[in-house]
Amino acid sequence: MPTEKVVTFEPDAFDLLMSGKRLALLRYVRDTGTATLESLSEATGLARTTVSRNINLLAKLGLIQFSTSSAYGRHKVIEPVYSKQQRLIVQTEI
């Protein structure tokens, strides 16, 4: 497994896109390994619709991914694209 996960953004895009809420969601998913909308909502105190909107954006940015697992039934499972053992490097293109 690579020791780093590199994600590249346009200049200033990261600051515009990464709110405190999104960073909290990203950290929770990374720290727990998997999450559901319900677990994220409960852990962060955010409404399920707010969590859904924000994780969909994080997925579009390539920071998390969705999968299905029989352990969670019909719930969407949210997983990080990097592990605790990896560093997430965010860089901007100039």
**Shape summary:** globular
Low-confidence spans: pLDDT under 50, at least 5 residues? none
Beta-strand percentage? Answer: 15-25%
The helix fraction, in percent, is 40-55%
Structure in a nutshell:
With 94 residues, the protein is of the alpha+beta class. It has one domain (4-92): Arc Repressor Mutant, subunit A (Orthogonal Bundle). It contains 4 helices and 4 strands.
Could you describe the 3D structure shown?
- By secondary structure, the protein is of the alpha+beta class.
- It has a two-stranded parallel ribbon with strand order 1-4. A two-stranded antiparallel sheet has the order 2-3.
- It is built from four helices and four strands; from the N terminus they run βααααβββ.
- The termini are far apart.
- The radius of gyration is 13 Å and the shape is globular.
- The chain has helices at residues 13-17, 20-32, 37-44, 48-60, and strands spanning 4-9, 64-67, 77-80, 87-92.
Characteristics of this structure?
4 strands; WH-like_DNA-bd_sf; MarR family protein; two-stranded antiparallel ribbon; two-stranded parallel sheet; WH_DNA-bd_sf
